[in-house]
Amino acid sequence: MDIRQISPLYNYWISQQTDEDERERLALGNTKSKAYYLYAEEPYKWENLFQSVSRELINGDHSSVRAMDILLSTLNDSQKKKILQVLENECLFKKSILEELNGLKPIPSFTSKKPLRFFKILFVIFTNPYGLVIKRKKNHIYEITGTITNKLVRRIARIFNF
Fold first, then answer.
1. I need a surface site. Which of 23, 69, 99, 127 has the fewest CB within 10 A?
2. CA gap 129, 47 in Å, rounded
3. What are phi and psi of 47, to 5 degrees?
4. C-alpha distances in Å from residue 133, one per residue of 17, 42, 43, 118, 136
5. With contact defined as beta carbons under 8 Å apart, do 108 and 65 qualify?
6. In terms of pTM, does the model score above 0.85?
7. CA quadruple 70, 85, 24, 3: dihedral positive or negative?
8. What is the tens place of the pLDDT at every residue in 33-86?
């Protein structure tokens, strides 16, 4: 299964992103989360982080567990459980990672800094490699650059029949 389909925002990105679609997206959130603002106000950034962190975890990078835990905390309990169940059923994450995300094991604190990770995340947010289509008003420069990059890549793909 593709990470895009596991995302709680999958239906939102393929919708027309109407006001009703926006209300449905917000209903999946956990307003009590300290990171809820990211989910509510910056779904493009949230989605890019979700997909990027998911890929890191699929590759076994335990240092990304805390980031995923924060992202999942922005979702209501039923949505979080649903995602974790799919990840378990699809065997995408190692068992130890799922145990940490399910609260069965403590999430280790990693102190090693990975400076390249910061730039990789910035690159992802500004270039939109996951092809997210924002149909609502673009409020941030990275949403604009991501949209431009996405359109450019799609045009090039059409020209070369990719």
1. 23
2. 11
3. -65, -45
4. 10, 13, 11, 23, 9
5. yes
6. yes
7. positive
8. 999 999 999 999 999 999 999 999 999 888 899 999 999 999 999 999 999 999
